Amino acid sequence: MEITVKAEEAFHVFHLKGRLDLTSSSELKEKVKEHLEQGKVNILLNMAQVDFINSSGLGTLVSTLKEVRTANGRIALCSLAPYVQEIFEITQLSHIFDIFPGEKEAFAAFGQKKAAHTS
Amino acid sequence: MKDTSNERISISIPNRMESIKWLYPVCESILEELPISDKERHMILVAISEGFTNAFQHGNQKDPQTEIKLTFYPGEKSLKILIEDEGILPIDMNINNVPDHVDLEGISGRGLLLMRELVDEAYYDINSKGFNILTLITNFEKKYKKVYSF
Lengths: 119, 150
What we know:
The structure holds 2 protein chains of 2 kinds. Chain A is of the alpha/beta class. Chain A has a single domain (2-118), classed as Transcription Regulator spoIIAA (2-Layer Sandwich), CATH 3.30.750.24. Chain A has 4 helices and 5 strands. Chain A has helices spanning 25-37, 55-70, 82-90, 103-118; strands spanning 2-8, 11-20, 42-53, 74-78, 98-100. In chain A, helix 1 packs parallel to helix 2. The N and C termini of chain A lie far apart (40 Å). Chain B has a single domain (9-139), classed as Heat Shock Protein 90 (2-Layer Sandwich). Chain B has a 5-stranded antiparallel sheet with strand order 1-2-3-5-4, with helices on one face. In chain B, strand 4 (121-126) and strand 5 (132-139) form a beta hairpin. The N and C termini of chain B lie far apart (31 Å). The A-B interface holds A 19, 21-23, 52-56, 58-59, 62-63, 65-66, 82-83, 85-87, 89-93, 95-96 and B 17-18, 20-21, 24, 39, 42-43, 45-46, 49-50, 53, 56-57, 101-102, 104-111, 113-114, 117-118, 146, 148-150.
């Protein structure tokens, strides 16, 4: 799996590319851990180029969600491919993740939440 | 459903993390020959990966000296896949006992659910050597058990 990270607005956007399964999970965990240790706790996972996910990958995302929450950060997902989205529906993980159609929508939603929190 | 084809394709993959990369291209090339949609192909591949991961982690306990054997029986109306390892799964790993609602924030426990939902039949048994054998069956004209909206 290829992971590139860019700082955008309130988030660090992780662009994931490839399969998210047992073999690639540790890579994502490490990358997230590095960011959390540096205080970069708001993370958006752009999954437009993730063409495959299984339960190992889902477990990694749930683990990441918990770590980000522990660090008092926020995590969201965006741009899921249709088949990947369907795996989220089957496992009902769409209920615990904030999932957006694209980055723009995620920025807008979290910008609004941030404004609401600070007002 | 009894299918009439006698065709069989078998592969054995070493039980090593780095060998998992061979799983996808081999399975994809077999699935591409079948009269199924891209979506079904994708979902069967997810089910295979779940069975393979269980074999790697729980059946063979990540032992690199062991192997995982996959056998495909492509029929006219269905595809049967057997995934065999060299171990014995924990007794609670019964696909039929998977609840519809798994712990949403649990790190594991979704593999059996996915297998159950993504193919028409999925069950573990013991092979002639006394080890795990997983059977996955997909009927080509099946509809998904549940309708999931995007």
